[in-house]
């Protein structure tokens, strides 16, 4: 065990926890976290097997339920988000699915912000609604709209802040008050900020969701997700869905994410530094109609971003003049940036949301969420900023 660090989390700072929390050494005393690629664990006796399965004794028995490598990632992320419990999942979508299945039942209702990850919208409206769960969508930053959309059977308020792709924010403490005065849980998808820039649980949220695929990995290698919150809702109800429903993380992926967490703070700072430079540069280009980045002083929620985030994030979206034709021209003229939908990578990526990540949404919903045909999303990586700007300049004419 690493100097019993996970028993004394509150004595250590973020960067220390990111590197050491959750690590229990095996008898070999390895310095680096080991990868336990085993599907099951051996018992000393039939009595021990029965006690582990029955929950009378702590310990590992089957990797769908728990595994030392997965547990290390879970405990480390819980320490960083300052939550009691964390469950790791096969993907970010699996984290959202497990949360919904763990908390809701048929007849319940959810209010969600409108501009969320496209696949989350599809999960809610195409699949969850089939099982008798109702959804209403509201403008993320409009607190009155949230209040008005709540019904007697509403159980969850779900929000992504900042939102994808246009980096809109909601005031988390205010939304938490609304949730709690209506007996609802506030669920925040913290994918864009990560705990390095924003800690929703400390601001009153009940559950934090992650797509670990993005910044937690940080180098675009593995799919994974996580749910963080208190030990009853996350540690029992949502963990129970994992144990039974099987959307578990693989030990190898858990190891990659664990190592990713060690550099999370450094990487997020570097992403933020490059992103503000790119946003300011784009703002000066004649071919650009609008830039969305919370770090810009003309972003409508710049002050809120300064208050609830410790950095503005690595996602910059912008609208080019001339709609889809010119947006595609910018994308097709890049030689360096990766044309791909992933984000949070050291490699900068460029996406046309209206025809990819948000292509399954109706035109009406795209209009409401400002996903216009000229919109481009850049996940600003860690290459030299001058090279990133030069690459975008090729098509910005
Ligand atoms: C990518 C993403 C997800 C889904 O995560 P996967 O790991 O791709 O399943 C959920 N929310 C946000 C904000 C995302 O960017």
UniProtKB/TrEMBL annotation:
Its cofactor is pyridoxal 5'-phosphate. It holds the Pfam family Cys_Met_Meta_PP. InterPro entries: Cys/Met-Metab_PyrdxlP-dep_enz (IPR000277), Cys_met_metab_PP (IPR054542), O-succ-hSer_sulfhydrylase (IPR006234), PyrdxlP-dep_Trfase (IPR015424), PyrdxlP-dep_Trfase_major (IPR015421), PyrdxlP-dep_Trfase_small (IPR015422). The modification N6-(pyridoxal phosphate)lysine is found at residue 214. One of its GO terms (cellular component) is cytoplasm. GO terms for molecular function: carbon-sulfur lyase activity; pyridoxal phosphate binding; transferase activity, transferring alkyl or aryl (other than methyl) groups. It catalyses: O-succinyl-L-homoserine + hydrogen sulfide = L-homocysteine + succinate. GO terms for biological process: 'de novo' L-methionine biosynthetic process; homocysteine biosynthetic process; transsulfuration. Keywords: Amino-acid biosynthesis, Methionine biosynthesis, Pyridoxal phosphate, Transferase. Its EC number is 2.5.1.-. Pathway: Amino-acid biosynthesis; L-methionine biosynthesis via de novo pathway; L-homocysteine from O-succinyl-L-homoserine: step 1/1. Belongs to the trans-sulfuration enzymes family. MetZ subfamily. Catalyzes the formation of L-homocysteine from O-succinyl-L-homoserine (OSHS) and hydrogen sulfide. NCBIfam families: O_suc_HS_sulf (TIGR01325), PRK08133.1 (NF006003). Homotetramer. This is O-succinylhomoserine sulfhydrylase. It comes from Cocleimonas flava. The gene is metZ.
């Amino acid at each position: 065990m690493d100097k019993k660090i996970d028993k004394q989390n509150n004595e250590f700072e973020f960067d220390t926890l990111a590197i050491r929390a959750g690590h229990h050494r095996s008898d070999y005393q390895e310095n680096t976290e080991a990868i336990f690629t085993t599907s099951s664990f051996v018992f000393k006796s039939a009595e021990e097997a029965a006690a582990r399965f029955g929950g009378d004794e702590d310990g590992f028995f089957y990797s769908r339920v728990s595994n030392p490598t997965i547990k290390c990632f879970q405990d480390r992320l819980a320490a960083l988000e300052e939550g009691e419990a964390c469950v790791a999942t096969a993907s970010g979508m699996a984290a959202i699915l497990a949360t919904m299945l763990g908390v809701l039942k048929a007849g319940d209702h959810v209010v969600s912000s409108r501009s969320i990850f496209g696949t989350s919208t599809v999960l809610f409206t195409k699949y969850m609604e089939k099982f008798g769960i109702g959804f209403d969508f509201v403008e993320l930053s409009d607190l009155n709209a949230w209040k008005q959309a709540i019904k007697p059977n509403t159980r969850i308020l779900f929000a992504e802040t900042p939102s994808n792709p246009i980096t809109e924010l909601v005031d988390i403490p205010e939304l938490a008050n609304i949730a709690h005065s209506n007996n609802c849980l506030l669920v925040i998808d913290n994918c864009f900020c990560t705990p390095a820039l924003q800690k929703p649980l400390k601001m009153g949220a009940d559950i934090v969701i992650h797509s670990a695929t993005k910044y937690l990995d940080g180098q675009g290698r593995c799919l994974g997700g996580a749910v963080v919150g208190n030990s009853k809702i996350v540690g029992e109800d949502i963990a129970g869905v994992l144990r039974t429903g099987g959307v578990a993380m693989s030990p190898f992926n858990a190891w990659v994410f664990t190592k990713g967490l060690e550099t999370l703070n450094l990487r997020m700072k570097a992403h933020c530094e490059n992103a503000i430079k790119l946003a300011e540069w784009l703002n000066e280009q004649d071919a650009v109609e609008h830039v969305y980045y919370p770090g810009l002083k003309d972003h409508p929620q710049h002050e809120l971003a300064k208050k609830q985030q410790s950095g503005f994030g690595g996602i910059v979206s912008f609208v080019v003049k001339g709609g889809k034709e010119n947006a595609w021209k910018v994308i097709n003229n890049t030689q360096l940036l990766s044309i791909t939908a992933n984000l949070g990578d050291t490699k900068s990526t460029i996406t046309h949301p209206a025809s990819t990540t948000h292509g399954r949404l109706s035109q009406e919903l795209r209009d409401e969420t400002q996903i216009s045909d000229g919109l481009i999303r850049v996940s600003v990586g860690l290459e030299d900023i001058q090279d990133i700007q030069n690459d975008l300049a090729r098509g910005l004419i």
